[in-house]
Amino acid sequence: MTSSHTHKWGIRRASSAARSHAPGEAGGKQALAVTGRAGFVARGVVYVLVGALALRIAFGGGGREADRQGALQQVAAQPFGKVMLWMLVVGFGCMAIWRASGALLAKGPKNKVGSRLLDGGRAVFYGFVCWGTASFAAGAGGSSGSDAKSQDWTASALKLPGGQVLVGIVGCVLIGVGVTLAARAVMRRFLRKLETGKMSRRVRQVVTGLGVGGGVARGAVFAGVGVFALVAAIRFDPHQAKGMDATLRTFAHTPAGPWLLVAVAVGLVLFGGFSFASARWRRL
Fold first, then answer.
1. Which of 1, 26, 212, 258 gives the lowest tally of CB atoms within 10 Å of its CB?
2. Cα–chain-centroid distance for residue 180?
3. Could you write out the DSSP letters of every residue in 50-87?
């Protein structure tokens, strides 16, 4: 066999191998895309419900806590609530898997160490959210809300050597995350991750509004939780720490009155809508 024939045979063999692997790779990418979209839907449901609960508080409705626990209680109270809760469990599990795949299988520009660590952290976070939601669904509620969890964690951390510094660092990190989320929303950085070319002009305007308003509100909540953690560290008092519910309620006691809480609550609902839009148009 001549060298030219050998070369051609090698090319055909390589192309054949590539074709045999292509369907499997395409199927894997498609499965991960479906997984990610399910996760965004679950996130959207929770943010819409938390925003709605915060609106109820702003207008004197009181009731359930405006955090993920309150949102799950709201879901459980609906017809077929148990089924919906388990659907959320699946959704959050899908989000954890999708984020983990970004940390482990990222290629190209997403293969940077910082991006991998960020996706890894998000995967761990959504893993805990999935576990907490599953525990709630299996036990019909009863677990503590975000405020109690924040104070318990802060109290445990303050007892550690250097705990005061640790809590202070966590507070500063949360403030930084909140400011970053809000800044990126205002700069419309989220549009880079969306398939805007498939949107009509009107749809793009709506999605942009959801992303900006929702991102700023979400950033404000993160920053607010961080401020209270920092205060708890400075005063060495775990009772100063607050979760999402107490942080949202605090917005109602600012000079702006309940209207600041209304603005943030509407923003959280908008972020829920943006999550649904991400489920449709996010590049996955």
1. 1
2. 14
3. HHHHHHHHHTT---S-SSHHHHHHHHHTSTTHHHHHHH
